[in-house]
């Protein structure tokens, strides 16, 4: 492809900015402008960021509980010293969000999934997991979450590259009807990355295990998005899967309405028309960069795009990145 489409409303960098929209600080002391404060463990490791609305509700909850589960100061919120194990933190966080859900306090909790996400940061725990919490509640604590996305593509007999694109079901609680990668999902506490992508490929796209297990880990992206539901720093593991020409993905679990097989010009047009779920657009942009469809010669924001989809997120991960 010699030249990218220029007929659509948004540039690639516009699309990236819509997803990676949490303010950048020019120095270590400057504020994001959102008045957020860190959530700390008892070892002072930052595991999340709390907006004023969450802090206000947390103060009221804390006032009613003895002993207080949290230490709430102007510049930070910390788990109380007696909450010093995975089990104790997990239980108090569960009680907190069960209460807020029952009170219908935050819109984010209306999307309850009964799916637990790990929050890393406890160097005393062999897995480095500090606690686990309900998936839909993660924006309220501003914790780092992880997902896996699969690019499904084919090459025609003439060598033309095409990509399978999913259209999200209109019944989805988030981004209904938007475009998506062929397979995508969060990584539950009980599964590793590859197990998650194989599971999602079978459930969302009816791909056999024999085909799904050929998915290859190729990249990862990271970004920080602020929404009406809260703050969400995210890292997404990316896998590629070349799908045989005689295999057609089919919706299975109700998450996807249908699948399209598009050439790269058409994929680009839909990205620039802002029809993709934001983080899924970033995954495709990463694919376009890795296949030299986006390159330094045709994209003036090439370096800015690369830096914004590989944002440094100052939270612990599965590796023991605690000093």
UniProtKB/TrEMBL annotation:
Pfam families: DUF4743. InterPro entries: DUF4743, NUDIX_hydrolase-like_dom_sf, NUDIX_hydrolase_dom. SUPFAM superfamilies: Nudix. CDD domains: NUDIX_Tnr3_like (cd03676). PROSITE patterns: NUDIX. GO terms for molecular function: 8-oxo-dGDP phosphatase activity. It comes from the Eukaryota. Residues 143-286 form the Nudix hydrolase domain. This is NUDIX hydrolase domain-like protein.
